[in-house]
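Quick one, T. Sequence first:
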Amino acid sequence: MTTHPSPPAELNELLNGTRPDALHSRLAAALTAEAAPTATCSPEGAHRIHRRLRRLAEVLPPPVELFRDPRRLTLLSECVAVADPPLYMAVLSHYALCLGSVISLTDDPARLGRQWEALASARSKGVFLVTEIGDASSHLGIRTTAEFDPETRAFRLRTPDAGAAKFSGVGSSRMPQTAVVCARLLVGGADRGVFSFVVDLTDDRGPLPGVEISAAIGVPDLPLDYALVRFHGVRLHHDQWLDDGARIDGAGAFHDPLGSPDARLSRTLCVGQALWATLPAAMAAMARESSLRALRFAAHRRAHGRLAPGAKVLAYRNQQHALLGCLAESFALTCAGRTAREIWTRSRAAAGGRPPAAGRTDGMTFAPWTAVDRPLAVLKALTVRGTARVARECQHRCGVAGFLHPNLLAGYHGCAHAFDSAGGDSQLILLDTGRALVQEPEPAAGRAALPPDVPVDHSAWWPAVARAQETWLTHELRRTLEERTQAGHTGLDLWNPLLDAARELGEAYGSRLLAESLAGAVDAVGDPELLAALRPLAALYGAAEARRLAGRLLATGVLDPATVRALPAVTDRLCDRLLPHLPLLDEAMSAPRGAPPVPLGADDYAAALTDFLTRQPERPS
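Structure tokens:
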């Protein structure tokens, strides 16, 4: 691919928003000051992650200021995710979840004193402890307790048994770490709901008194040190309780303005909004890099197949369908990431910069996440699955190069795949979404149909298909649910046969959100040259999704067999329209200058890989 002189400003804005250039430069310098570790499941690797986290803290604004600007949080997520996926997990835990909880759930973070100072500077690595290892959907049944002592006005943090042990990426036990721990508050023996508490876990010598940390547990998809954490009567000062407006008066009476344990749980976990608002953009950045590196690799790499000896790999139609399809999906994910950030920005603005009030709790059946924020939770689920799909396909299309650590495709795939469960389980999010949607009033417009005059290769076609599919699935599931309810079924007996249908409806809702995000972004573009590239890119995403989901679309009657049979030819035409625009898209969608160099995608891959390996430090003897 030849170089395009400069991408249109509209595409830069669409992809990146208003990028704070000075902050980006500082982040790039911090990320390139030390090479990312090749393996972090070791004490040395954990300490290296912590050093890199401290370097980032040195160049970032103070945490409270950082959280005032979702664009900066998003920029941090994108830069770190592209450069070092395991570090990205540590950054999310430290900033979005740990510091985010403190900032969101207390009016004065400074009241934590040295704990706040250590977290703000990253001298202590922040972690977030919510998941308990013994039960499914443990967030809805947290058993770790923080019992209030009315005489000392302190709390005692306890893990009742091995099944209530917390699971998280706590890293090496011999470095300073501070956790936000979600625990059930007991006042006068009564359960007052789940709150967050700030707890020092370890220092340079190991776990602190009352804290038990297991040996490290490896997670191959995301190579960080995970472990189980238990608490044995750890004493917590009153200020370590993130009370969020709740209080215990001098007589020991408990008061919570939210009024119910479910509302309190939703509010305690509102920190998930910061993760879901920035995670989609980070996922999209990894998907873009996967696609562009694989496309450059295919454009430069010769093949010696007997059909066309010496032809470039990208000349083959199957490679075009796969890799241009990945580029189209990464662009759709980018638009979804922008939508997620905008949703969070609007909700914070409406709440005066604070996290929004507790969400609806009637959607809290399988997990609490959709009750916190349904669109953000669903965008998280769809973008991590899309990114894993893109990275996996790019790995496959690059052969052995796609699996080498220096090329980072394996890291991107592992990170995205791990987040299918991390950050709110995607399966449970989609189940709760479908269940909640079908119990809402049916819109007066009734069932949607495809506009007959929209051609398959038009960028408006797929949003219409996605809307029709969601509407059809909602109508059918609502009809079945009403029939079973009238037959006397309740609870699990009512829903058990409908769970797959509820998940499929949740997925269709997410597909429609992505399709509308993409269509809205393209419709807002005015530059003719840019439109000539983005319209076929958006249409190719729709054609690829229709081929991937053809069975479901045929089963519902949203698409007919003739349309499905025509999709490969439509894909051919869209690839032909896109190929001349690849230099423009490559220039605009590449990682910003200053990102660490990666061999895959270089003009001379063999030379770049050799140079990379030559620069690596020698192994100790």
